[in-house]
Amino acid sequence: MPQVRPDQNAHSPAQSPTAPVDEAIDLDFTGVFKLQDLKPDPPLPPPKKVPQDILIGAQELLKGNCYINLSRRRPARVVDVARTTILIVEDNTTTQYLLHMLLSRAGYLTRRAGCAAEFIAAMQKAPLPDLVILDIHLKDNVSGFKILTKIRAHPKLKSLPVIILSGETAPENLMQGVSLGVDAYLSKPAKSSALMDAVKAALGG
After folding, report:
1. Is residue 114 part of a domain?
2. pLDDT of 115 above 50
3. Angle between helices 144-153 and 171-179 (to 10 degrees)
4. What single string gives the DSSP state of each residue in 31-56?
5. What is the rounded distance in angstroms from the CA atom of residue 102 to the CA atom of residue 99?
6. Where residue 89 falls among pLDDT bands split at 50, 70, 90?
7. What is the rounded radius of gyration, in angstroms, for the C-alpha atoms of the chain?
8. The domain that contains 90 carries what CATH number?
9. CA-CA distances (angstroms) from residue 14 to 8, 24, 49, 158, 175?
10. Average pLDDT over the chain, rounded to whole?
11. Greater confidence, 34 or 185?
């Protein structure tokens, strides 16, 4: 008869082949979001011909200072605003504060980041944000497009709703955001009502 050591329990969960194993959730993004990888790529040469469909509503953009393109449809669901966290990634402190005030007054929880390091720190906090509002140009020459690319490539974040809020409204910028899977693209300055509509749509509310 085999001997059992005092510290060995034949019925312990660690030794049971049917014991459930919790899936580890990787919240350490330091290996995914590297500062050098978030630098913008060298500018591409201008396209020979700009597709005309991206210019639909151009006059309204000039008049109303607002362009919205909802490129991803979210399934309709009941959104508990008081438990919904929105991460604001914006290097302009005034704009960052205004977004915080607007969203807080609507009942949302907010986190704020102005650079890549703050973004990574905000993503490491639990729970993960339910939505990200992202500027294109950030401190330390970090590209919001690069951040969006990393989000879409991450197995735990690929479905995270992202709204771009930027002063860059050239057709190539809009097309790049859409191609990377952004949920909405708003120009600066944006009307607060338009922003809130985009937030609700991106969350599925």
Report:
1. yes
2. yes
3. 20
4. GTS-GGGGSPPPPPPPPSS--GGGGT
5. 5
6. very high
7. 22
8. 3.40.50.2300
9. 10, 16, 63, 32, 51
10. 76
11. 185
